[in-house]
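Our working data are protein records whose layout never changes between entries. An example says more than a description, so a record of this kind follows.
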Amino acid sequence: MSQDDLDRNQPATPYKLQRAKERGQAAKSADLVAALVFVVAAGYMASRGFDSISAQFRFDLSLLSQAGRMETSAATLWPLISAGLRSVLSALAPFLGALMLAAVVGCLVQTGPILSFEPLKADFGRLHPMQGLRRLFSMRAPFDAVRAVVKLTLLCLVGYLSLKALSGQFYALANVSPIGYLRMLVDDLSAVALRMAGILALIALLDLAFTRREFARKMRMSHRELKDEAKHREGDPRIRARMRELRRELRKRSQSIRRTRDADVVITNPTHVAVALRYEHGRMASPQLLAKGAGHLAAAMREIAARHRIPVVCNPVLARQIFRELPVDQPVPPELYAQVARIIVWVFAMRERHPSPLPAGEAK
């Protein structure tokens, strides 16, 4: 056992199991499918076997009685052949359909629907001698050998005990009519087949449990594989952290847009960038940036300003500088005092002169 196998002590994630299923890999017991098919065959023989065989014998009798009285020609033989084929197909079609349905159900119950062409692709790695030796000395090989021996022993034992229980009927066969002999034969064979089907079903359940355990062991993952899978599914942690930071910043900007209604002035460039400033005389040392936005956020800020009668001043250089250098909720730096103060003074002066909605324009 390699060191890599020793490190794989974690159960497989649902993502890995789903990927394996897409490649056609799943825990499936062939014995369970074979046992289910055998159970259906035995049950069909017990329920419909005598009727099907009797109908076929009656048709054969009718066919033979007609064949002795008719001329042998293509025109007369073809209807007999067609009727014989229809009779055989009508008798075998339900039986074969039941077996096919049992095989399909046996596969679907274990793995669910799987549509994958991966198992059909050429895999030259299977020809490697080491792969063959690994399969030969795996836990599956001794299990298969023991299972085959146990299965053969149990089936022989069940067959022997069943035939021994029926041995008392052999003396009564001389007094049974041919149709009675046929019914007795079908019933006895059905009883033996059902007992064998029960044994096969028990062995198949044990094989299914072992198969799923081996598949789970094969699909186990190491801690490194878990980390690699998480990185593959969710991306690099540094990229995720950066994306979270950008989302927080965008959410913060979106929330700050609503604060535009509390601003005293909105400065634009005039369409691409907008910043909202507020100043309370005697309480603030300098105007404070309440909100800023670019693109559609800037357009939203202009709409809020128009709705709440906030003056909009077009100053491209100042708007871009504040947007680029000043974070939200921070006061205007000293180097911008002169430009911002001129705009604030103009806004307050316009507010005193015109208590009605202030127009948008340039600071004078």
User: Anything to note?
Assistant: The chain has twelve helices and four strands.
